[in-house]
Amino acid sequence: MLTNMLLHHKYTKHEFLLNPPNVFYPPPSYDFFQSPTQKFGPMSQSSPETTPSSALASPDPDPGPSVVGRLKMPPALPKIKLCEVCGHAGATSHYGGTVCGGCKIFFSRTVQSKKGFVCERGGQCPMNAGKRAKCRACRFQLCLKAHMSPEEVGRLRDMRNCDYPPGPMVRREGFVVGYFDENSQPSTSLQDCSNQIISCIDIHNYGNDEMSVLQTFVNLERSSDNNAALRFGDQFLRVCNAGIDMSSAMEFPMPICEKIPMDYIRKEFLEDPKTNMKLFWCRNVNHFLEWTCVNEDLRHFSRQEQTLLIAENFLSIACLTSFYGFLRIQRDQFEKSSEDGTVPPPCSVEWFAQISKLSTEAKISVHRAVSEIMEPMDSLDISMEEIVLLKYIMLFSESSTSHTSSDMYRIRCYRLKYCGLLRKYIKRQIPDPEKRIARISELLKIVESVRNTAMYLDRWMTLFYTSNTCQMNDVLVYDFHVRTWHEYATSSAWNSTSSGIKREIQIKREY
Protein backbone atom coordinates (compact mmCIF):
# COMPACT_ATOMS: atom_id res chain seq x y z
CA MET A 1 0.00 0.00 0.00
CA LEU A 2 2.78 2.41 0.92
CA THR A 3 4.61 1.58 -2.29
CA ASN A 4 1.55 2.38 -4.38
CA MET A 5 1.10 5.68 -2.54
CA LEU A 6 4.69 6.63 -3.23
CA LEU A 7 4.39 5.67 -6.89
CA HIS A 8 1.25 7.70 -7.51
CA HIS A 9 2.01 10.81 -5.38
CA LYS A 10 3.96 13.50 -7.18
CA TYR A 11 5.79 16.05 -5.04
CA THR A 12 5.89 19.67 -6.06
CA LYS A 13 9.10 21.59 -5.83
CA HIS A 14 7.94 23.44 -2.72
CA GLU A 15 6.98 20.25 -0.88
CA PHE A 16 10.27 18.64 -1.77
CA LEU A 17 12.26 21.49 -0.23
CA LEU A 18 10.23 21.50 2.97
CA ASN A 19 10.30 17.73 3.37
CA PRO A 20 13.45 16.17 1.98
CA PRO A 21 13.00 12.51 1.10
CA ASN A 22 15.68 11.33 3.55
CA VAL A 23 14.22 13.07 6.64
CA PHE A 24 11.21 11.62 8.50
CA TYR A 25 9.26 13.50 11.16
CA PRO A 26 7.35 11.55 13.80
CA PRO A 27 3.63 12.33 14.02
CA PRO A 28 2.46 14.44 16.98
CA SER A 29 1.09 12.63 19.99
CA TYR A 30 -2.52 12.62 21.09
CA ASP A 31 -1.75 14.92 24.06
CA PHE A 32 -0.37 17.50 21.69
CA PHE A 33 -3.76 17.99 20.05
CA GLN A 34 -5.53 18.16 23.45
CA SER A 35 -3.40 21.09 24.65
CA PRO A 36 -4.52 24.68 23.93
CA THR A 37 -3.38 26.14 20.68
CA GLN A 38 -0.10 27.98 21.06
CA LYS A 39 -0.08 31.57 19.89
CA PHE A 40 3.22 32.73 18.51
CA GLY A 41 4.21 36.36 18.44
CA PRO A 42 7.27 38.56 18.77
CA MET A 43 9.81 37.50 21.39
CA SER A 44 9.43 40.76 23.27
CA GLN A 45 5.68 40.14 23.85
CA SER A 46 6.00 36.74 25.51
CA SER A 47 4.41 36.45 28.96
CA PRO A 48 6.56 35.67 32.03
CA GLU A 49 4.75 32.39 32.53
CA THR A 50 5.77 31.10 29.11
CA THR A 51 9.28 32.56 29.16
CA PRO A 52 12.12 30.34 30.39
CA SER A 53 13.84 31.52 33.59
CA SER A 54 17.23 31.49 31.92
CA ALA A 55 15.99 33.93 29.37
CA LEU A 56 14.68 36.25 32.12
CA ALA A 57 17.87 36.12 34.07
CA SER A 58 20.25 36.85 31.20
CA PRO A 59 18.54 38.38 28.20
CA ASP A 60 20.34 38.06 24.91
CA PRO A 61 21.60 41.48 23.79
CA ASP A 62 21.35 40.41 20.14
CA PRO A 63 18.19 38.37 19.68
CA GLY A 64 18.87 38.05 15.94
CA PRO A 65 16.30 38.19 13.18
CA SER A 66 12.63 37.83 13.99
CA VAL A 67 11.15 34.35 13.79
CA VAL A 68 7.61 35.55 13.24
CA GLY A 69 6.00 33.52 10.48
CA ARG A 70 8.73 30.89 10.39
CA LEU A 71 6.96 28.49 12.73
CA LYS A 72 4.07 26.43 11.32
CA MET A 73 0.94 25.12 12.90
CA PRO A 74 0.85 21.35 13.38
CA PRO A 75 -0.78 19.53 10.46
CA ALA A 76 -4.42 18.58 10.74
CA LEU A 77 -5.51 14.99 11.03
CA PRO A 78 -5.69 13.28 7.61
CA LYS A 79 -9.21 12.95 6.21
CA ILE A 80 -10.56 9.45 5.81
CA LYS A 81 -11.09 8.80 2.11
CA LEU A 82 -13.99 6.74 0.83
CA CYS A 83 -13.74 4.18 -1.94
CA GLU A 84 -14.99 5.62 -5.24
CA VAL A 85 -16.47 2.23 -6.14
CA CYS A 86 -18.25 0.89 -3.06
CA GLY A 87 -17.95 3.79 -0.59
CA HIS A 88 -15.94 1.80 1.95
CA ALA A 89 -13.78 3.88 4.33
CA GLY A 90 -9.99 3.77 4.28
CA ALA A 91 -9.44 4.05 0.54
CA THR A 92 -6.03 4.78 -0.93
CA SER A 93 -4.63 5.18 -4.42
CA HIS A 94 -4.50 1.95 -6.45
CA TYR A 95 -3.93 1.69 -10.21
CA GLY A 96 -4.79 5.36 -10.65
CA GLY A 97 -8.02 5.45 -8.61
CA THR A 98 -8.91 5.99 -4.97
CA VAL A 99 -10.39 2.65 -3.92
CA CYS A 100 -10.37 0.25 -1.01
CA GLY A 101 -8.25 -2.88 -0.82
CA GLY A 102 -11.14 -5.16 -1.75
CA CYS A 103 -11.93 -3.30 -4.96
CA LYS A 104 -8.22 -3.16 -5.78
CA ILE A 105 -7.95 -6.96 -5.56
CA PHE A 106 -11.16 -7.41 -7.57
CA PHE A 107 -9.92 -5.10 -10.33
CA SER A 108 -6.53 -6.80 -10.49
CA ARG A 109 -7.99 -10.31 -10.69
CA THR A 110 -10.57 -9.28 -13.30
CA VAL A 111 -7.97 -7.74 -15.59
CA GLN A 112 -5.57 -10.66 -15.23
CA SER A 113 -8.28 -13.29 -15.80
CA LYS A 114 -9.51 -11.45 -18.96
CA LYS A 115 -13.12 -12.30 -18.22
CA GLY A 116 -16.11 -10.32 -19.41
CA PHE A 117 -19.18 -9.81 -17.25
CA VAL A 118 -22.73 -8.92 -18.27
CA CYS A 119 -25.21 -7.19 -15.97
CA GLU A 120 -28.73 -8.63 -15.93
CA ARG A 121 -30.18 -5.24 -14.96
CA GLY A 122 -28.56 -3.17 -17.69
CA GLY A 123 -25.92 -1.59 -15.46
CA GLN A 124 -28.29 -0.16 -12.84
CA CYS A 125 -27.24 -2.25 -9.83
CA PRO A 126 -26.75 -0.36 -6.52
CA MET A 127 -23.19 -0.52 -5.27
CA ASN A 128 -22.03 -0.24 -1.67
CA ALA A 129 -19.73 -2.11 0.69
CA GLY A 130 -22.38 -4.74 1.41
CA LYS A 131 -23.59 -5.29 -2.18
CA ARG A 132 -20.39 -4.86 -4.16
CA ALA A 133 -20.06 -8.62 -4.71
CA LYS A 134 -23.59 -8.92 -6.13
CA CYS A 135 -22.81 -7.75 -9.67
CA ARG A 136 -19.25 -7.95 -10.94
CA ALA A 137 -20.11 -6.21 -14.22
CA CYS A 138 -21.29 -3.02 -12.49
CA ARG A 139 -18.40 -3.16 -10.04
CA PHE A 140 -15.84 -3.37 -12.84
CA GLN A 141 -17.48 -0.47 -14.68
CA LEU A 142 -17.31 1.67 -11.55
CA CYS A 143 -13.62 0.79 -11.26
CA LEU A 144 -13.06 2.13 -14.76
CA LYS A 145 -15.06 5.26 -13.97
CA ALA A 146 -12.83 5.78 -10.93
CA HIS A 147 -9.93 6.09 -13.42
CA MET A 148 -8.38 2.74 -12.55
CA SER A 149 -6.10 1.77 -15.42
CA PRO A 150 -5.80 -1.88 -16.56
CA GLU A 151 -2.30 -1.07 -17.85
CA GLU A 152 -1.16 -0.44 -14.26
CA VAL A 153 -1.98 -3.99 -13.16
CA GLY A 154 1.22 -5.98 -12.79
CA ARG A 155 3.42 -3.02 -13.71
CA LEU A 156 5.12 -2.81 -10.31
CA ARG A 157 5.78 -6.55 -10.33
CA ASP A 158 7.33 -6.30 -13.76
CA MET A 159 9.56 -3.46 -12.58
CA ARG A 160 10.82 -5.58 -9.69
CA ASN A 161 11.39 -8.72 -11.73
CA CYS A 162 13.04 -7.09 -14.75
CA ASP A 163 16.44 -5.45 -14.90
CA TYR A 164 15.48 -3.34 -17.89
CA PRO A 165 13.10 -0.37 -17.66
CA PRO A 166 9.47 -1.00 -18.56
CA GLY A 167 8.07 -0.03 -21.93
CA PRO A 168 6.03 3.08 -22.48
CA MET A 169 2.63 3.07 -20.83
CA VAL A 170 -0.53 3.50 -22.84
CA ARG A 171 -2.00 6.91 -22.15
CA ARG A 172 -5.30 6.68 -20.32
CA GLU A 173 -8.13 8.61 -21.92
CA GLY A 174 -9.80 11.30 -19.89
CA PHE A 175 -13.43 10.49 -20.64
CA VAL A 176 -15.58 7.94 -18.83
CA VAL A 177 -16.30 4.89 -20.95
CA GLY A 178 -19.82 3.76 -21.71
CA TYR A 179 -21.33 0.86 -19.84
CA PHE A 180 -21.01 -1.81 -22.49
CA ASP A 181 -18.32 -0.18 -24.58
CA GLU A 182 -16.19 -3.05 -25.81
CA ASN A 183 -13.08 -0.90 -25.29
CA SER A 184 -13.84 -0.81 -21.57
CA GLN A 185 -14.14 -4.57 -21.29
CA PRO A 186 -11.19 -6.92 -20.83
CA SER A 187 -10.25 -8.74 -23.98
CA THR A 188 -12.24 -11.96 -24.20
CA SER A 189 -12.15 -14.93 -26.50
CA LEU A 190 -14.64 -15.52 -29.28
CA GLN A 191 -16.12 -18.43 -27.36
CA ASP A 192 -16.66 -16.38 -24.19
CA CYS A 193 -18.50 -13.58 -26.01
CA SER A 194 -20.65 -15.86 -28.16
CA ASN A 195 -21.72 -17.87 -25.11
CA GLN A 196 -23.28 -14.79 -23.53
CA ILE A 197 -26.24 -14.79 -25.96
CA ILE A 198 -28.54 -17.45 -27.40
CA SER A 199 -28.75 -17.29 -31.18
CA CYS A 200 -30.91 -19.15 -33.67
CA ILE A 201 -27.79 -21.24 -34.28
CA ASP A 202 -28.19 -22.64 -30.76
CA ILE A 203 -31.97 -23.01 -30.99
CA HIS A 204 -31.95 -24.98 -34.28
CA ASN A 205 -28.78 -26.95 -33.57
CA TYR A 206 -30.45 -30.35 -33.57
CA GLY A 207 -28.17 -33.26 -32.83
CA ASN A 208 -25.24 -30.93 -32.10
CA ASP A 209 -24.69 -30.40 -35.83
CA GLU A 210 -24.28 -26.72 -36.63
CA MET A 211 -23.73 -27.47 -40.32
CA SER A 212 -27.40 -28.40 -40.62
CA VAL A 213 -28.25 -24.90 -39.39
CA LEU A 214 -25.94 -23.47 -42.04
CA GLN A 215 -27.72 -25.50 -44.70
CA THR A 216 -31.00 -23.95 -43.53
CA PHE A 217 -29.49 -20.49 -44.04
CA VAL A 218 -28.45 -21.46 -47.57
CA ASN A 219 -31.96 -22.73 -48.37
CA LEU A 220 -33.45 -19.44 -47.17
CA GLU A 221 -31.07 -17.53 -49.42
CA ARG A 222 -32.00 -19.62 -52.45
CA SER A 223 -35.67 -19.15 -51.67
CA SER A 224 -35.19 -15.37 -51.63
CA ASP A 225 -33.28 -15.54 -54.94
CA ASN A 226 -36.13 -17.49 -56.60
CA ASN A 227 -33.78 -18.61 -59.37
CA ALA A 228 -35.79 -21.81 -59.68
CA ALA A 229 -38.23 -19.74 -61.75
CA LEU A 230 -35.48 -18.34 -63.97
CA ARG A 231 -36.96 -19.66 -67.21
CA PHE A 232 -40.20 -17.82 -66.42
CA GLY A 233 -38.44 -14.52 -65.71
CA ASP A 234 -40.01 -12.70 -68.64
CA GLN A 235 -43.50 -13.49 -67.32
CA PHE A 236 -43.09 -11.42 -64.11
CA LEU A 237 -44.51 -7.92 -64.06
CA ARG A 238 -41.77 -5.34 -64.44
CA VAL A 239 -43.31 -2.80 -62.09
CA CYS A 240 -41.99 -1.50 -58.80
CA ASN A 241 -43.22 0.70 -55.98
CA ALA A 242 -40.69 2.76 -54.00
CA GLY A 243 -43.30 5.18 -52.68
CA ILE A 244 -43.65 3.46 -49.30
CA ASP A 245 -41.54 4.27 -46.28
CA MET A 246 -39.08 1.90 -44.65
CA SER A 247 -41.33 1.11 -41.69
CA SER A 248 -44.03 -0.29 -43.98
CA ALA A 249 -41.48 -2.06 -46.17
CA MET A 250 -39.92 -3.80 -43.16
CA GLU A 251 -43.29 -5.20 -42.12
CA PHE A 252 -44.45 -6.22 -45.61
CA PRO A 253 -41.87 -6.00 -48.44
CA MET A 254 -43.96 -7.71 -51.14
CA PRO A 255 -45.59 -4.50 -52.54
CA ILE A 256 -42.16 -3.18 -53.56
CA CYS A 257 -41.99 -5.47 -56.59
CA GLU A 258 -42.66 -9.01 -57.68
CA LYS A 259 -40.27 -11.79 -56.77
CA ILE A 260 -38.40 -11.72 -60.06
CA PRO A 261 -35.55 -14.27 -60.21
CA MET A 262 -32.40 -12.48 -59.09
CA ASP A 263 -30.20 -13.86 -61.88
CA TYR A 264 -32.75 -12.72 -64.46
CA ILE A 265 -32.85 -9.11 -63.22
CA ARG A 266 -29.05 -9.09 -62.93
CA LYS A 267 -28.70 -10.02 -66.59
CA GLU A 268 -31.20 -7.33 -67.52
CA PHE A 269 -29.28 -4.76 -65.51
CA LEU A 270 -25.95 -5.62 -67.16
CA GLU A 271 -27.49 -5.26 -70.62
CA ASP A 272 -29.31 -1.96 -69.99
CA PRO A 273 -28.42 -0.45 -66.60
CA LYS A 274 -30.14 2.90 -67.12
CA THR A 275 -33.52 1.44 -68.02
CA ASN A 276 -33.47 -1.27 -65.35
CA MET A 277 -31.83 0.76 -62.56
CA LYS A 278 -34.94 1.31 -60.44
CA LEU A 279 -36.32 -2.20 -60.92
CA PHE A 280 -32.92 -3.70 -60.08
CA TRP A 281 -32.69 -1.55 -56.93
CA CYS A 282 -36.24 -2.38 -55.82
CA ARG A 283 -35.68 -6.11 -56.32
CA ASN A 284 -32.55 -5.93 -54.16
CA VAL A 285 -34.48 -4.11 -51.44
CA ASN A 286 -37.24 -6.71 -51.65
CA HIS A 287 -34.67 -9.51 -51.46
CA PHE A 288 -32.90 -7.94 -48.48
CA LEU A 289 -36.03 -7.17 -46.44
CA GLU A 290 -37.47 -10.62 -47.08
CA TRP A 291 -34.21 -12.08 -45.74
CA THR A 292 -34.32 -9.87 -42.63
CA CYS A 293 -37.95 -10.81 -41.95
CA VAL A 294 -36.96 -14.44 -41.38
CA ASN A 295 -33.88 -13.49 -39.34
CA GLU A 296 -34.75 -14.65 -35.84
CA ASP A 297 -31.76 -12.99 -34.17
CA LEU A 298 -32.80 -9.59 -35.49
CA ARG A 299 -36.07 -9.86 -33.58
CA HIS A 300 -34.19 -9.76 -30.27
CA PHE A 301 -33.51 -6.05 -30.80
CA SER A 302 -35.85 -3.10 -30.42
CA ARG A 303 -37.68 -1.61 -33.38
CA GLN A 304 -35.32 1.35 -33.47
CA GLU A 305 -32.25 -0.87 -33.40
CA GLN A 306 -33.63 -3.09 -36.17
CA THR A 307 -34.23 -0.02 -38.33
CA LEU A 308 -30.69 1.23 -37.77
CA LEU A 309 -29.13 -2.13 -38.66
CA ILE A 310 -31.25 -2.47 -41.80
CA ALA A 311 -30.73 1.11 -43.01
CA GLU A 312 -26.97 1.13 -42.45
CA ASN A 313 -26.08 -2.28 -43.85
CA PHE A 314 -28.49 -2.74 -46.75
CA LEU A 315 -26.25 -1.40 -49.51
CA SER A 316 -23.17 -3.32 -48.35
CA ILE A 317 -25.04 -6.63 -48.25
CA ALA A 318 -26.75 -5.89 -51.58
CA CYS A 319 -23.33 -5.24 -53.16
CA LEU A 320 -21.98 -8.51 -51.76
CA THR A 321 -24.85 -10.61 -53.13
CA SER A 322 -24.94 -8.74 -56.45
CA PHE A 323 -21.24 -9.18 -57.23
CA TYR A 324 -21.45 -12.83 -56.24
CA GLY A 325 -24.47 -13.20 -58.53
CA PHE A 326 -22.63 -11.45 -61.38
CA LEU A 327 -19.70 -13.83 -60.94
CA ARG A 328 -21.98 -16.87 -61.00
CA ILE A 329 -23.72 -15.66 -64.18
CA GLN A 330 -20.40 -15.03 -65.91
CA ARG A 331 -19.11 -18.48 -64.99
CA ASP A 332 -22.22 -20.25 -66.25
CA GLN A 333 -22.28 -18.43 -69.58
CA PHE A 334 -18.56 -18.85 -70.11
CA GLU A 335 -18.71 -22.61 -69.44
CA LYS A 336 -21.68 -23.08 -71.78
CA SER A 337 -20.17 -21.06 -74.62
CA SER A 338 -17.81 -22.31 -77.29
CA GLU A 339 -14.16 -21.33 -77.36
CA ASP A 340 -14.59 -18.77 -80.11
CA GLY A 341 -14.02 -15.84 -77.79
CA THR A 342 -17.48 -14.36 -78.15
CA VAL A 343 -18.13 -14.69 -74.40
CA PRO A 344 -15.53 -12.97 -72.23
CA PRO A 345 -14.07 -14.86 -69.28
CA PRO A 346 -15.38 -14.20 -65.77
CA CYS A 347 -14.23 -11.03 -63.99
CA SER A 348 -13.70 -9.19 -67.27
CA VAL A 349 -14.64 -5.53 -67.54
CA GLU A 350 -16.40 -6.35 -70.82
CA TRP A 351 -19.30 -7.69 -68.78
CA PHE A 352 -19.86 -4.17 -67.39
CA ALA A 353 -19.37 -2.29 -70.65
CA GLN A 354 -22.80 -0.64 -70.52
CA ILE A 355 -22.26 0.54 -66.94
CA SER A 356 -18.83 1.93 -67.82
CA LYS A 357 -20.38 4.04 -70.58
CA LEU A 358 -22.50 6.00 -68.10
CA SER A 359 -19.61 8.16 -66.84
CA THR A 360 -15.89 8.18 -66.14
CA GLU A 361 -16.56 7.67 -62.43
CA ALA A 362 -18.66 4.60 -63.23
CA LYS A 363 -15.84 3.15 -65.30
CA ILE A 364 -13.35 3.65 -62.46
CA SER A 365 -15.77 2.07 -59.98
CA VAL A 366 -16.23 -0.96 -62.23
CA HIS A 367 -12.49 -1.55 -62.47
CA ARG A 368 -12.08 -1.29 -58.70
CA ALA A 369 -15.01 -3.59 -57.96
CA VAL A 370 -13.73 -6.21 -60.40
CA SER A 371 -10.17 -6.17 -59.05
CA GLU A 372 -10.99 -5.88 -55.33
CA ILE A 373 -14.18 -7.95 -55.04
CA MET A 374 -14.92 -10.24 -57.97
CA GLU A 375 -11.39 -11.43 -58.71
CA PRO A 376 -10.75 -12.43 -55.05
CA MET A 377 -14.12 -14.21 -55.03
CA ASP A 378 -13.15 -16.07 -58.19
CA SER A 379 -9.69 -17.02 -56.94
CA LEU A 380 -11.07 -18.29 -53.63
CA ASP A 381 -13.94 -20.09 -55.39
CA ILE A 382 -16.17 -18.67 -52.68
CA SER A 383 -19.15 -20.83 -51.78
CA MET A 384 -22.77 -19.98 -51.08
CA GLU A 385 -22.28 -20.96 -47.44
CA GLU A 386 -19.52 -18.40 -47.02
CA ILE A 387 -21.57 -15.68 -48.73
CA VAL A 388 -24.52 -16.32 -46.43
CA LEU A 389 -22.38 -16.17 -43.28
CA LEU A 390 -20.67 -13.00 -44.48
CA LYS A 391 -24.12 -11.45 -44.89
CA TYR A 392 -24.96 -12.18 -41.25
CA ILE A 393 -21.57 -10.87 -40.11
CA MET A 394 -22.07 -7.64 -42.06
CA LEU A 395 -25.63 -7.21 -40.79
CA PHE A 396 -24.60 -7.29 -37.14
CA SER A 397 -22.24 -4.36 -37.34
CA GLU A 398 -22.05 -1.63 -34.67
CA SER A 399 -20.24 0.97 -36.77
CA SER A 400 -22.83 3.70 -36.18
CA THR A 401 -22.62 6.11 -33.26
CA SER A 402 -26.41 5.95 -33.02
CA HIS A 403 -26.34 2.57 -31.28
CA THR A 404 -26.55 2.48 -27.51
CA SER A 405 -23.64 0.92 -25.64
CA SER A 406 -25.64 -2.09 -24.44
CA ASP A 407 -26.98 -2.80 -27.95
CA MET A 408 -23.48 -2.47 -29.39
CA TYR A 409 -22.27 -5.19 -27.06
CA ARG A 410 -25.17 -7.49 -28.00
CA ILE A 411 -24.59 -6.81 -31.70
CA ARG A 412 -20.95 -7.77 -31.27
CA CYS A 413 -21.92 -11.02 -29.52
CA TYR A 414 -24.25 -12.01 -32.37
CA ARG A 415 -21.61 -11.16 -34.95
CA LEU A 416 -19.07 -13.34 -33.16
CA LYS A 417 -21.63 -16.14 -33.14
CA TYR A 418 -21.64 -16.19 -36.95
CA CYS A 419 -17.88 -15.71 -37.07
CA GLY A 420 -17.54 -18.87 -35.02
CA LEU A 421 -19.82 -20.76 -37.42
CA LEU A 422 -17.78 -19.51 -40.39
CA ARG A 423 -14.58 -20.68 -38.71
CA LYS A 424 -16.05 -24.13 -38.08
CA TYR A 425 -17.25 -24.41 -41.68
CA ILE A 426 -13.84 -23.50 -43.09
CA LYS A 427 -12.18 -25.89 -40.64
CA ARG A 428 -14.22 -28.75 -42.11
CA GLN A 429 -13.26 -27.78 -45.63
CA ILE A 430 -9.56 -26.99 -45.06
CA PRO A 431 -7.56 -29.14 -42.58
CA ASP A 432 -4.38 -27.05 -42.80
CA PRO A 433 -4.46 -24.30 -40.08
CA GLU A 434 -2.29 -21.88 -42.06
CA LYS A 435 -4.48 -22.17 -45.15
CA ARG A 436 -7.58 -21.65 -43.01
CA ILE A 437 -6.18 -18.44 -41.55
CA ALA A 438 -5.21 -17.22 -45.01
CA ARG A 439 -8.70 -17.88 -46.38
CA ILE A 440 -10.44 -16.12 -43.50
CA SER A 441 -8.11 -13.17 -43.99
CA GLU A 442 -9.00 -12.97 -47.69
CA LEU A 443 -12.71 -13.16 -46.90
CA LEU A 444 -12.41 -10.26 -44.48
CA LYS A 445 -10.58 -8.25 -47.13
CA ILE A 446 -13.51 -8.83 -49.48
CA VAL A 447 -15.90 -7.55 -46.82
CA GLU A 448 -13.82 -4.40 -46.39
CA SER A 449 -13.73 -3.80 -50.15
CA VAL A 450 -17.49 -4.29 -50.38
CA ARG A 451 -18.06 -1.70 -47.66
CA ASN A 452 -15.82 0.82 -49.41
CA THR A 453 -17.65 0.28 -52.69
CA ALA A 454 -21.01 0.62 -50.94
CA MET A 455 -19.99 3.97 -49.46
CA TYR A 456 -19.17 5.25 -52.94
CA LEU A 457 -22.43 3.92 -54.40
CA ASP A 458 -24.40 5.45 -51.55
CA ARG A 459 -23.30 8.91 -52.69
CA TRP A 460 -24.41 8.03 -56.20
CA MET A 461 -27.85 7.02 -54.96
CA THR A 462 -28.12 10.29 -53.03
CA LEU A 463 -27.36 12.15 -56.24
CA PHE A 464 -29.88 10.03 -58.15
CA TYR A 465 -32.54 10.94 -55.60
CA THR A 466 -31.90 14.68 -55.69
CA SER A 467 -31.73 14.81 -59.51
CA ASN A 468 -34.49 12.20 -60.01
CA THR A 469 -32.22 10.15 -62.25
CA CYS A 470 -33.93 6.94 -63.40
CA GLN A 471 -37.02 8.11 -61.48
CA MET A 472 -35.30 7.44 -58.15
CA ASN A 473 -36.92 10.36 -56.30
CA ASP A 474 -39.08 8.25 -53.98
CA VAL A 475 -39.62 7.87 -50.24
CA LEU A 476 -37.94 4.47 -49.95
CA VAL A 477 -34.84 5.72 -51.76
CA TYR A 478 -34.78 8.68 -49.40
CA ASP A 479 -34.97 6.44 -46.33
CA PHE A 480 -32.12 4.19 -47.44
CA HIS A 481 -29.69 6.69 -48.96
CA VAL A 482 -30.53 10.25 -47.91
CA ARG A 483 -31.99 10.17 -44.44
CA THR A 484 -29.63 10.60 -41.49
CA TRP A 485 -30.58 8.01 -38.90
CA HIS A 486 -28.80 9.40 -35.85
CA GLU A 487 -31.82 11.64 -35.21
CA TYR A 488 -34.18 8.67 -35.33
CA ALA A 489 -32.21 6.92 -32.58
CA THR A 490 -33.11 9.70 -30.11
CA SER A 491 -36.70 10.26 -31.23
CA SER A 492 -39.68 8.39 -29.85
CA ALA A 493 -42.02 8.71 -32.82
CA TRP A 494 -41.46 6.86 -36.06
CA ASN A 495 -44.76 6.80 -37.92
CA SER A 496 -44.60 10.02 -39.92
CA THR A 497 -45.52 11.04 -43.44
CA SER A 498 -43.02 11.54 -46.20
CA SER A 499 -43.52 15.32 -46.06
CA GLY A 500 -42.79 15.30 -42.33
CA ILE A 501 -39.67 13.28 -42.98
CA LYS A 502 -38.34 15.81 -45.46
CA ARG A 503 -38.97 18.67 -43.04
CA GLU A 504 -37.47 17.08 -39.92
CA ILE A 505 -34.54 15.11 -41.26
CA GLN A 506 -31.43 16.69 -42.70
CA ILE A 507 -30.28 15.70 -46.16
CA LYS A 508 -26.73 14.47 -46.50
CA ARG A 509 -24.38 17.11 -47.81
CA GLU A 510 -21.51 14.87 -48.90
CA TYR A 511 -22.51 15.03 -52.55
Gist of the model:
The protein has two domains: 1-28 and 81-162 and 176-188, Erythroid Transcription Factor GATA-1, Chain A, CATH 3.30.50; 200-504, Orthogonal Bundle (Retinoid X Receptor), CATH 1.10.565.10. Helix content is 51%, strand content 1%.
- Which superfamily, in CATH terms, is the homologous superfamily of the largest domain? Retinoid X Receptor
CATH topology of the largest domain: Retinoid X Receptor
Query: What is the distance, rounded to the nearest whole angstrom, between the alpha carbons of the first and last residues?
Result: 59 Å
Structural class call reads mainly alpha
**What is the annotated CATH architecture of the largest domain?**
Orthogonal Bundle
| Share of β-strand residues | under 5%
Segments where pLDDT lies below 50 for 5+ residues? 1-25, 28-59, 163-188, 492-511
Main-sheet strand order equals 1-2
CATH class of the largest domain: Mainly Alpha
Tell me the major beta sheet. Answer: 2 strands, antiparallel
Q: Helix amount, in percent? A: 40-55%
* Overall body shape: elongated
Strand and helix order: HHHHEEHHHHHHHHHHHHHHHHHH
The number of E-state strands comes to 2
Number of domains: 2
| Quaternary structure | single chain
